[in-house]
Amino acid sequence: MKKPIIPTSGDTLSGFCFAFSAYFIWGFLPIYMKMLAYFPSAEIVAHWVIWSVPIAGILLILMGRTKDVYAAILNPKTLAMGCLTASLITINWGIYVWAISADRTLDAALGYFINPLFSVDLSAIFLRESITRSQMAAIALAVAAVVFSGNFKRISAMGIDWIDCYLGFYALCKKQLPIGPNQGFLLEVLILFVPALAYVGWLSSQDQNHFDLSMTHNTWLLLGCGLITAVPLLLYANGAKGLQLTSIAIMQYIAPTLIFLVAVFVFDEEFGQARIIAFPMIWAALIIYSVSMFRNMRRA
Considering only CA atoms, which of 223, 215, 265 is closest in space to residue 44? Predict the structure, then answer.
């Protein structure tokens, strides 16, 4: 009698395709943002918030998850944490937009490479989560890479680039928000919606607004800010359902790798000797970290 075939992996082809599509879009997002480089960063962030609200709202209605957001708004503690993460994501997105327009896309790629490692460090400090010796070694190697990256004039006394700090602290606070990532995203943009609308209104009163109802090229670019935010999130949410956690953990490095390639080969940003040393150090740190994570998950 034939023995039943037991699946050894929870990964599906559809899950991989959805997740890869999300990371692919995020990886080439700097090309779109470069077309917005002549807009003020604050105006781009404001329109990102405004046009993300209807798209994220429709997404959650289709998923039947709007009750979670409503409950979060009525919970003072959750709402307060949402205000904090909303503030941090505004700074995060603002820095990202500014980095692209200021020809510092390589710095953004460096930040997204180091972010998972820095988040582990913050979790160990603030959440008392356990950290292995291998992970400590990976973090130390990543910190050394930041110092060698040529950014030592812009790093703090702790040796961590300030771009990475914002990314890490946002991830730490987001982890403590007691709702799902899609619901949390809608909560954040709802909190930011009124200030963003007020800012765009002020720009219009000063005749400095690039958005108009005649549907010019500028208008379409600003409208697209909502799509480029919501579509990858939708793809990622569907991909995560069809993939194991280990697969998602490895695939998260697709986006910063593509950002790195775009910065070097499309934007022709300077890739000096210091960064030639730094980036292999980061990749080595990620390998050490990933191997340690897989071992821990197998033991569990």
Answer: 223
DSSP state of 3: P
> What pLDDT is stored for residue 117 in this prediction?
65
pLDDT of residue 181: 75
- Count the domains in the chain: 1
| Residues 52/231, Cβ–Cβ less than 8 Å | no
Residue 279's domain comprises 13-299
Cβ burial, residue 276 (10 Å; 0-12/13-18/19+): exposed
Contact criterion met (CB below 8 Å) for 227 and 48: no
| Domain assignment present for 186 | yes
Distances (CA, A) of 215 to 28, 45, 53: 25, 19, 20
- Which pTM does this prediction carry? 0.72
Residue 7 lies in a domain: no
Question: How many other β-carbons are positioned within 10 Å of the β-carbon of residue 71?
Answer: 13
Q: Using only the alpha carbons of the chain, give its radius of gyration.
A: 20
